[in-house]
């Protein structure tokens, strides 16, 4: 909060021409937010702040290249930091996602405060953070129960939290709702309801989707790394193709985006995705899910590989076979990791639909007349500016995984049976045996 | 839409004093919605419209009693209509919930249109209804798969919809998002994003919660009927106690609510809940879930009763036993349906927390300066006015059921095994046998 207030009194950061420009825009527009301020000096503008060391070193360079270099340096800083967290394993990544989620929530809520001039609304900040806490409590609990239920059921003192998880979460939420109703003040009804909605839409976008990311991590690191890298690759390559070859504007919302960047980005992403996937599928570390092994009684990343990570022989389609025969190559089939084929689908989504996450974010920023969501990363803007497409991509991967990749897992079903009482375990066993016998799948002598 | 436009030009419905009144209010308040109109004549005001027949019959009666009578008549009309739908069984109730959900969505979205004067926003209405469709497709599919998966897996042509359900739903949603981005028009960014948020908050409140109601229905009609009746009872009794004895105002948000009504309502609801529960638990029709019986190959409402619907003997607490001993009654235990005890918890929620759903709705209506959500039910306002507390209650019941009532269901687990391929079914069987043998739960001679 402090840094925003500082920015509002620092004239070097909002030039007069920026203000005039914003005023011109506002004349064109007949939409004004409730209590919205059109004076951009009070809204965070992504200050392009640069560490002093870099500033000194780059002061003689042409500004166009300068921003490119700063952005490039911090891209690599982020990539290396990310690499280190990957090296630390799945649980460190979960913590990273958690931290990013909190920062994104903070950035969006801060914009809400400022746009609706609601510094002084009673209890509002406390309530927003409380709802963030309550919804995270709910989602983390659900994920932990789904993936580590067997482990958690060992710790006696955790059992009530596990058994009554939904009830506790609901009580937390209802307490927040009751507090909201009590916090209502006649003068501010409209602002309070608007910000209540604002908080909930933010929770919907940030919290729910970041938990899908966490679930992707638990299915195997590759389900996080490949899509995240694809989005980054597409961002960078679209920027570079646009920078060097960009001519034809793509969409009114993001005037800097061009068709050249879009197409160059897409092709690069497909190639990059294939190469990266081929590299990662070699290592069990990336393809095996973290799970609780209840024979070894420890967390484990050993696994029988999922079929998509095993080399499989495919017959080539007839037409392709003909083509090859004509040029004298007798290829009729090929051996490939099926994951490589899936990675092509992911790359297409990342480069065709993924950018709409970014367009949506651009539209949002334009609606509220802000340049960036924050100024956390020099040359890049806020955390949310870098994650706008990641969220949509993560949801896609989650859905893609559960529709096309997930196979019913006999081991998990058996683990599920062991959450029952012993007499019910026996009951399941006999029911299953009788049904299998009746269907002739099992014959009498087997059992 | 038509009726709202009619209302805006019909002076008999918004009297001058109402307008002046609203103007006075708006002077006090410094919050104005984006493009919000403070002129109440353009916002639906709940016209207290009454069918002509009734109007004639009641014209000589004191207006205070008149509204009471109209409200009373339509309360009974609704109760009888509801009774008829119950008689038709669970699937008819699901359709009713669906219809109510659509009407509530319509009422809230209509308010959004009018408050933000967005009749002419490109594509907005179409997109709102499209998102309603997409989210319902998702939730209905999930519920159907969870409760009738075995049945659905019989119909070959439905299989792709079942297997790829999440992917189809996600694609539908993403198509809507892409359409939204393309529909953005520079002049209207702010309105468009505000209404996008409005639509999503409405979906969150109406669609998600109405699907919890549907899931409650599938667990047994009693899980719908008892809570719904409790909320109705609490509404009516609080109104009546308030009407006859009300003196002390309860909360600033709803000036008509009094402590006398609140307490009278709560006590009546507890007593009513006990009586109603005792009545309903006698019938299998109310306590058995609708499920697919894959031996009979038909939908069935026969069941082995859940333990909460079987008479159980409880030892009274020591202190109570002492008290009874002192007065010479040797009661040490009592026989009761456990559901009766649960119904007391539900009644307490319905009368203590439930009304906050109503307060929230009141605050919302005040924020946007509307009297009712619509004028669908004479004397009551819109459908949403009657369902504000029902939604919160349904969520409570859902959470309560899954935390305290649901028992792991061996039959469902076994059904789940049969969604696997035959060789995997065998695999589960042997894994289960080996584990049970290893744990000594099963001994060698059994199998």
Automatic annotation (TrEMBL), chains A, B:
Keyword Cytoplasm attached: no
Location(s), subcellular: Membrane
Keywords per UniProt: Lipid biosynthesis, Lipid metabolism, Membrane, Nucleotidyltransferase, Phospholipid biosynthesis, Phospholipid metabolism, Transferase, Transmembrane, Transmembrane helix
Region (Disordered): 1-51
InterPro entries named among the record's database cross-references: PC_trans, PC_Trfase_euk
Any one Pfam family match given in the protein's UniProt record, by short name: CTP_transf_1
Biased composition (Basic and acidic residues): 15-25
Membrane topology per record: Multi-pass membrane protein
Catalysed transformations (reactions): a 1,2-diacyl-sn-glycero-3-phosphate + CTP + H(+) = a CDP-1,2-diacyl-sn-glycerol + diphosphate
EC numbers, comma separated: 2.7.7.41
Compositional bias (Polar residues): 38-48
The keyword Signal is annotated on this UniProt entry: no
The protein's annotated pathway: Phospholipid metabolism; CDP-diacylglycerol biosynthesis; CDP-diacylglycerol from sn-glycerol 3-phosphate: step 3/3; Lipid metabolism
Enzyme class, first EC level, given as a word: transferase
GO molecular function, one term: phosphatidate cytidylyltransferase activity
GO BP of this protein: CDP-diacylglycerol biosynthetic process
Similarity comment: Belongs to the CDS family.
Name of the molecule in the record: Phosphatidate cytidylyltransferase
């Amino acid at each position: 909060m402090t840094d925003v207030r500082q920015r509002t009194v620092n004239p070097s950061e909002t030039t007069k021409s920026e203000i005039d420009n914003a005023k011109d825009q506002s004349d064109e527009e007949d939409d004004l937010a409730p209590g919205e301020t059109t004076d951009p000096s009070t809204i965070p503008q992504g200050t392009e702040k640069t560490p002093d060391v870099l500033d000194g070193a780059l002061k003689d360079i042409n500004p166009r290249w300068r921003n490119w270099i700063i952005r490039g340096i911090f891209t690599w800083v982020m990539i290396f930091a990310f690499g280190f967290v990957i090296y630390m394993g799945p649980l460190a990544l979960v913590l990273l996602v958690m931290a990013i989620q909190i920062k994104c929530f903070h950035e969006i809520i801060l914009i809400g405060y400022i746009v609706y001039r609601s510094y002084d609304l009673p209890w509002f900040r406390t309530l927003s953070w409380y709802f963030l806490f309550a919804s995270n409590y709910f989602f983390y609990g659900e994920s932990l129960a789904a993936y580590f239920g067997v482990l958690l059921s060992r710790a006696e003192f955790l059992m009530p939290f596990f058994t009554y998880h939904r009830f506790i979460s609901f009580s937390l939420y209802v307490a927040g709702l009751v507090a909201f109703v009590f916090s209502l003040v006649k003068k501010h009804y409209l602002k309070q309801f608007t910000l209540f909605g604002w908080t909930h839409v933010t929770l919907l976008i940030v919290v729910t989707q970041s938990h899908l990311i966490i679930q992707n991590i638990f299915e195997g690191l590759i389900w996080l790394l490949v899509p995240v890298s694809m989005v980054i690759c597409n961002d960078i390559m679209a920027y570079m193709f646009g920078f060097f070859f960009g001519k034809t504007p793509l969409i009114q919302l993001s005037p800097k985006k061009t068709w050249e960047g879009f197409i160059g980005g897409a092709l690069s992403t497909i190639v990059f995705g294939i190469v990266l996937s081929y590299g990662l599928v070699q290592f069990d570390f990336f393809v095996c899910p973290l799970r609780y092994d209840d024979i070894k009684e420890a967390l484990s990343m050993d696994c029988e590989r999922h079929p998509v990570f095993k080399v499989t022989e495919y017959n080539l389609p007839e037409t392709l076979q003909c083509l090859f025969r004509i040029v004298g190559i007798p290829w009729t089939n090929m051996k490939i990791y099926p994951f490589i084929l899936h990675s092509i689908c992911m790359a297409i989504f990342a480069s065709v639909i993924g950018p709409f996450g970014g367009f949506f974010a651009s539209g949002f920023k334009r609606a509220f007349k802000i340049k960036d969501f924050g100024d956390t990363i020099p040359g890049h803007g806020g955390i949310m500016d870098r994650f706008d497409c990641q969220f949509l991509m993560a949801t896609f991967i989650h859905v893609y995984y559960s529709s096309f990749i997930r196979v019913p897992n006999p081991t998990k079903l058996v683990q599920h049976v062991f959450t029952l009482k012993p007499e019910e375990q026996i009951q399941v066993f006999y029911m299953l045996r009788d049904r299998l016998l009746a269907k002739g799948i099992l014959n009498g002598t087997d059992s």
